[in-house]
Amino acid sequence: MDFELMYSAIKLVRDVLKISAGEEVVITADTASDWSVVEATARAVAIVNAKPIVFLHQTPVGVGKAADPYLPIKTLTAVLTSTDTWIEYNRNWLLYSTPYWRAMEYGKLKYICLVGMYADMMVRTIGRINLDAIYVFQRRLAEITKRCRHMKITTPAGTNIEFENDPSRPVLVEGEVQGPGEYMLFGQVDWAPIEDSINGVIVFDGSIWPPEELGILKTPIKLFIRDGKVYKIDGGWEAKHFEKWLKSFNDENMFRVAHISYGCNPGAKLSGNILEDERVWGVVEWGLGSQSSTFRGKLGPAPSHTDGVCMNPTVIGDGEKIIEDGEYIHQELTELVAKLRAGK
């Protein structure tokens, strides 16, 4: 695994992030991060003659702005607003925290969110993926989605949700790094629908994270959505705990739907790590709470953020099926699917 991990780290640094000689690269990690991934990435940065800086801090309680009380905010902000590239490996992510927002305002930073990345996952979701094939597939999937004005999604677990898309908003193709900006791991295509057009039921039956007590779900959690806001949650103890966690922030924005995404990384598996779970082939993932400015939506920051995964969805855009029972079947995707899944 050491060989494959090092190969994957070099692929990330050289081919995905396109880090060049002389760049200063900050790698953030907390005490729950996989140190082998951090170390391999730092070595890869040095191999391309760039300058790695590893910033390790204690694992905060919570994520996003909820993590602020546990972070060295002054020092972390100073570092992130002075560097060229930021690779985030924190298990409890800094995404949507105060240092994150200040780093994004800095405007000169190249940031990639790889929260909770562990060695086996890095090999499967980066090292063994055909970058050209996945980028072409994601672009086509984004083009198809951007053409759709009305969408409906159902799942065997009971999801039945409809919404409208705003053609002026981007459908984001993750992982294609082109200069400063915010980037995510490839294997995900995401966007923000018109928030108050989202109505129906979303059933999470894959995983949810945070809160930390959850992860892979034993019992589905059913969210009832009206005008883009969760007004009722049903299910077992996991649903009760999830609702209690959302309410603990005393902010109605934690109940608002921030974004949706497709999973399309053929190396991802349901593991309880949300970064990987939301990229499992053919899933749909929904985010609640903070909304990144890259979506060009109307929600903005919230005290925290959470993501939930729906398995085996059927996605229909303007009456045409894009996904059926967790498989991409749109006629414009079939050849690309075969090439991507073959790894060639």
Key attributes of the depicted protein:
single chain, 344 residues, alpha+beta, Thermophilic metalloprotease-like, eight-stranded antiparallel sheet, six-stranded antiparallel sheet, 9 helices, 19 strands, 28% helix
Can you describe this structure?
The longest helix has 17 residues, at 131-147. The mean pLDDT is 95. By secondary structure, the chain is an alpha+beta fold. A hairpin with a 2-residue loop joins strand 12 and strand 13 (229-234). The chain has 9 helices and 19 strands. The strands form 3 sheets. Strands 13-12-10-6-5-17-18-19 form an 8-stranded antiparallel sheet. It starts with a helix and ends with a helix. The protein folds into 2 domains: 2-126, Thermophilic metalloprotease-like (3-Layer(aba) Sandwich); 130-342, no CATH class.
List the helices and strands and how they pair.
Elements: H1 2-16, E1 24-30, H2 35-47, E2 51-57, H3 73-80, E3 85-88, H4 98-106, E4 110-113, H5 119-127, H6 131-147, E5 150-154, E6 160-164, E7 172-173, E8 181-184, E9 188-191, E10 199-204, E11 208-209, E12 221-226, E13 229-234, H7 237-247, E14 257-263, H8 274-277, E15 284-289, E16 305-310, E17 314-317, E18 320-324, E19 327-328, H9 334-342
Parallel strand pairs: 1-2, 1-3, 3-4, 4-8
Antiparallel strand pairs: 5-6, 5-17, 6-10, 7-9, 9-14, 10-12, 11-16, 12-13, 14-15, 15-16, 17-18, 18-19
Helix pairs in contact: 1-2, 1-5, 3-4, 6-9
